[in-house]
Amino acid sequence: MNSLGVIKNFDKDLYAYFVKEIERQHGSISFIPDENSTSPICASIMGSILVNSVNTLTLGKVDSLEALTVKRLCEVFEAPFASVKTVTIEAASRVVFNALTSRGDVIMSLDLRKKEHCNTENLAFRFVNFGIDPETQELNMDHVEKLALENRPKLIIISPVNYSLPIDFLRFSKIAKEVGALLWCDLSQTASLTAAGVIDNPMKYADIVTFSTHGAMQGPQSAVILCKKELSGVIQRTENLLGHTGLLSPQLSSLAARLHEMKTEGFKNYCMDVLENAKALAKGLEAGGMKIIGSKTQSHLVMIDTRNCAISARGAQELLADLGIHVRIAQVLTDNPNIKYDAVRFSSLPATTRGIKASQMEKLGMLIGQFLSKPDDENGKALLSKVSGYTSTLPALEKKYFDQSVAKLISGELED
Description:
Elements: H1 3-10, H2 12-27, E1 29-30, H3 40-46, H4 64-77, E2 81-86, H5 89-100, E3 106-110, E4 126-130, H6 141-151, E5 155-158, H7 169-179, E6 182-186, H8 191-196, E7 208-212, E8 223-227, H9 229-241, H10 249-261, H11 265-287, E9 301-305, H12 313-322, E10 325-326, E11 328-333, E12 340-347, H13 349-353, H14 358-373, H15 377-391, H16 404-411
């Protein structure tokens, strides 16, 4: 069934919204990981007959569909235990906090990540920040160890949303053990790269690993908790107490399919291209006059220090959106509480999904840098022209990364 055709004839107002969104997605280039295109296999399953099926799962009872999904999660991420009961990463984070901490505990966190999820009276903690060294713009592990010894945290959190360099998970694990803390890593924006093996897997060192499965991972809206076997019982009990009894059949099925898809060679090639595109983007931005936070990126992430821009981070975000470039902004904390960076964040994930090559990414980066250095009409028109030129030929998804059967599905070649 052509759902857009049905909507066009049935609901003109809703159809107008669809048309506007189609034009936005196809006529612009997003550098926001949450806007990465969903796998067509997942999208197909989410709109299948399974929407009429409702799972009623309770603690200790797992149906075959959830068991299959959990099995694949453990295989792909090399985890001893996996749970997929929560719909959002915020909910999964609160499960971890409720399961492993008590009110008033000390929490050490990179850039104070996860503090925003502590919004109830029971989740009141003393957060201690650790960030990058202001001089090297890298994590200083000796300083992290010093902070841990001084504060004796119950939990150490690594959520590298604003950090593009390799993380020494082994050193973090040793520090956590030294002070009697648990180590929690959140991979929401790097889950795909981790699964493909192109960046290090923290599951070998961490007690808890969490991530969302949509956006960067291109799956359905849900969140995953991985942990060591000895923590599985308290995680499951807490999920049940907080009312997280399981996902619906379409979500579970599409996640299982996405995990199966992530075992293909095409998926690994895609993740390697994500890294290459990020490096090319950083090179172009530097050529355009921007200063990259940190040394050479080794992830999907590129961050620019807006002190080198002619406009603020918020201004950069809004002006770039007018030219068809969608980005996020952030404040990067450092080890010195008096030094913070306002930054513009770029992720190479969505653009790579659409098929942008490294040479194109470098050119885009240079034009973006030139515009942010001097946001006049000439630089704006040059950037808009390049965006229009690229998007006019780009698909919503580049078929070269998919298994042959998936590529056929995108082309509408599969028979009923």
